[in-house]
Amino acid sequence: PGSGVFKTRPKWLMAAELVETARLYARDVADVRPEWIEALAGHLVSRSYLEPHWEARSGQVAAFENVSLYGLLLTARRKVNFGPIDPVLAREIFLRDGLVRQGVRTRGAFLAHNRRLIAEIETLEAKTRRRDVLVDEEALYAFYDQRVSAEIYSTASFERWREKVEREQPRLLFMSRDDLMQRSAQEVTADDFPARFQVQGMALPLEYHFEPGHAFDGVTAVVPLAALNQLTPAPFDWLVPGLRQEKAAALIRALPKALRRHFVPAPDFAKAVLQAAMPAEGSLQEAMRRELKRMTGIEVPIDAWDLVELPAHLVMHFRVVDDKGRTVASGSDLPALQGELSERAAEELGQASVDGWERADVRRWDFGELPESVELKLRGVTIRAYPALLDASDHVQLKLLDAPAEAQAATKAGVRCLFLLEQAQQVKYLRRNLPKLDLMCLHFRNVAGCDTLRDDLLAAAVDRAFMADGVVPRTEAEFRRRLDAGRGELADIVNAVCDRASEVLSLYHEVRKRLRSPAALAQMESLSDVREQLDHLIYPGFISATPSERFAHLPRYLQAVLRRLQKLDADPGRDRALLRDIRPHWERWLQRAEQHRQKHIDDAALADFRWLLEEFRVSLFAQELRTAVPVSDKRLRQQWEQVI
């Protein structure tokens, strides 16, 4: 207590002696700092080292040093260069973390070469979905251990040694495939696991990832944003050839037991399906339904796999990137990505530089040839854009669209507009003097307005006069040739279209009048069927939308409806009995047409089936009108066999 440092209470103090009476006393004391002790009594202190590790920035192995004297800790966790302290252990850490794990900063080309080779073999593993191709870290360590000098434990010493040794052995540190592969991966070929996915004239880069349970386990297609709207799901449903059979077998196993038992063993049926089907034939599921039915006679419902959740590696994933390569969105649902990014994708395509396209005010064909597609290069991917003529009423616009079907439909309307503009005076006269228009508008008023009907009549007449074969001209010469050939016939065709449309709408009006009459309860089911039939025959735009060869039969179909309604009043029971024959086919068509719409399937066989149904109605309810083609329940079933 009498000491001069009693009140200052230093952290450390030194005493000449300790005296113990009733209490313990330290005599002749002074404060002391730990760093003084280490500097003056270095021969007496003890040193220990913790957590040696590689530091890429300094290029050396570092550790934390503890310094103590007689058990008193003088310095804790001071970072020091560990190389001179333990050269052997420091060298091992340098080899493992600096070279094997590629943490060293070197000017040597060997490390980038080895990194690329390892990445290639890791991709092979992702493709084979196995972890036994690339050697482990111990093999990589042994490779460097055999070649790097025993005195090397830092970047500086390594660089000096490397530059010297590479003068005589420039590829000493370059690994080969034999150095890195535990076994061959002969089953992985460029055909089975391609680097790019060929679709719609594009070659999309593919990324392979092997991590079961991860959302993007499997194959990912890298899609430039500008190309997104052009893609359809069907080609991607086939995945890559190396995973195709596994997916087909998984789909078979996912079927309900009542269906699945017809396709056992699943791998054999999957193999047989893929030998007979080609990716160009719609989606994999469509091909499987078709081939399984051909092989066994058993029909798999079109929605059998709609709710099936396959493992992630059996579904194609998508990573959408912008023009700078940045990820915009990713996922496995292509339609959902397109719905989310549709406008941005169209803007991205519109910003791409393609000289000679995109004109705002076109009133005559003065733009040369209109190709079906042009090529753009974005992010290393050649994508297609589709030139289209957009109808703007008094002119057309030349634009690039990202969907071929949309461009084709728009161009047909745009070319039709150009035909109308080339004959402005004649069209103006025809528009004002369409025969029987007032009466037709009266009959059509419950469907749409008179302007809609007038435009539809002219559109149908122009199509029949200048594009009767359904082919849209794409050169100025062809456009002029068709214009000259059809100009003199346009008025007659307009009259013919109006005559037939007037007949159709007059009959439609008669049917509607009959439907407004009071009806007995026994007639309700039949009348509901008639209304549904009418909705699919007469609708806004039906004149130009109905193929001309089918349009010619509309009066007979409507006459058959009138005959049916007359007979219905006399014998509702007979009509209900006949309804049992047509209704299953009709409901099957309605369901399949909606499924095709949702799945973007264009099936000519289904269209033929639809019109065959109208002929079947004539045969059931108005045989006296006769059918255009032979038709029966059996023929309908045979036609259904051709439907996707």
Task: Walk me through this protein's architecture.
This protein has helices at about 35-40, 85-100, 110-130, 135-145, 155-165, 175-180, 235, 240-255, 255-260, 265-275, 285-295, 335-350, 405-420, 425-430, 435-445, 450-465, 475-485, 490-515, 525-535, 540-545, 550, 555-570, 570-600, 605-620, 635-640; strands spanning about 15-20, 25-30, 45-55, 60-70, 70-80, 195-200, 200-210, 220-225, 315-320, 325-330, 360, 375-380, 380-390, 395-400. The protein is α+β, with helices and mostly antiparallel strands and about 650 residues long. A 5-stranded mixed sheet has the order 6-7-8-9-10. A 4-stranded antiparallel sheet has the order 11-14-13-12. A hairpin with a 3-residue loop joins strand 1 (about 15-20) and strand 2. The radius of gyration is 40 Å and the shape is elongated.
Short description:
This protein has 644 residues and is α+β, with helices and mostly antiparallel strands. The protein contains 25 helices and 14 strands.
Largest sheet: 5 strands, mixed
Strand order of the largest sheet: 6-7-8-9-10
Class of secondary structure makeup:
alpha+beta
Q: What is the C-alpha radius of gyration, as a whole number of Å?
A: 40 Å
Low-confidence stretches: none
Residue-averaged pLDDT? 89
Strand content: 15-25%
- What's the shape? elongated
How far from one another are the termini? 103 Å
Give the number of DSSP strands. 14
